[in-house]
Amino acid sequence: MNVVYFDGVCNLCNAVVNFLIDQDTGGKLKFASLQSEAGEATLQALGLSTESYDSFIFSKNGKVFHKSTAALEVLKTLDGGWKRLYYTLIIFPRPLRDWVYTLISENRYRWFGQRAQCRLPTPELRERFID
Question: Cα(30)–Cα(57) distance, rounded to whole angstroms?
Answer without folding.
Answer: 12
